[in-house]
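Hi L.,

As promised, Diacylglycerol kinase:
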Amino acid sequence: MAILTPCAFVLPVSTVERIMLLGTLLVVLMVELLNSSVEAAIDRISLERHSLSKRAKDFGSAAVMLALILCGGTWMAIAGPHVLHWLRQLGG
């Protein structure tokens, strides 16, 4: 987030695209915070292994992965062409 946030302001994109780039970063952060809260609550209840606790933690991790996929896809679709253009200019 520390690297991509400034990049979102440097890229020559529309306001809506910039909001989408920054919004997906915030979605990842929010989902990660929710996942951490689920894990903390489960660990607070009991540190012993239980199948439901494992499932809850796995679902939280899966939610983070889906948020990262959404973020990565959005960044590739919006920022990718600009980065490729810059790389072609540097190489050629």
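Residues 31-41+52-87 form one domain.

Thanks again for sending the construct details.

K.
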